[in-house]
Amino acid sequence: MICFTRLNSVYYSHIVIRIQNIELMMNEEVRTIMSTRVTTVTPGQHVADVLELMEQKRLQQLPVVDKYGKLVGLITSYDLWQNCRNNPNCAEELVGTVMTRSIVKLAPKDKVGTAAELFMDRRFKTLPVVNLDGKLKGVVTAFDVIRYSFKKAYPEPILYADRIMA
């Protein structure tokens, strides 16, 4: 006969450990998971350049920086759709006229939990990370948070080859 009290005790202690791990993960700084090699554009570039970059690199948005590396906006696939759907000459427009200027950004010392909350509540997919001077230091994506959380929870590789269908 199985002792359910012992099984429940083991199960609940496992849950408590997982919750503690999540708390530790969410208090990690964004700088530890952000990507620092970021493709950017400038306000003076043409939308055609953005379209080409997005297609080549399979991106949904690009940070827009000035000549000093300061973040001045984002240009997203939604911005392009909204501004170009009825404008046949949109490819010749400048990024600065199409980009979103009012953006949410993170600081390198912000917590992973803050990023996770923004991804869930605001449905963002990518957040730029800037220093105190407003210079772009990197980006963090929802996938970065998921990958980080998964690797912390499961440091050993999980074999999934048997789950791949031929």
From TrEMBL:
A Pfam family assignment: CBS
InterPro entries, A to Z: CBS_dom, CBS_dom_sf, Diverse_CBS-Domain
Keyword set, alphabetical order: CBS domain
PROSITE patterns from the UniProt entry: CBS
Entry's transmembrane regions: none
Name assigned to this protein: CBS domain-containing protein
Origin superkingdom: Bacteria
Residue span, CBS domain: 34-92, 99-156
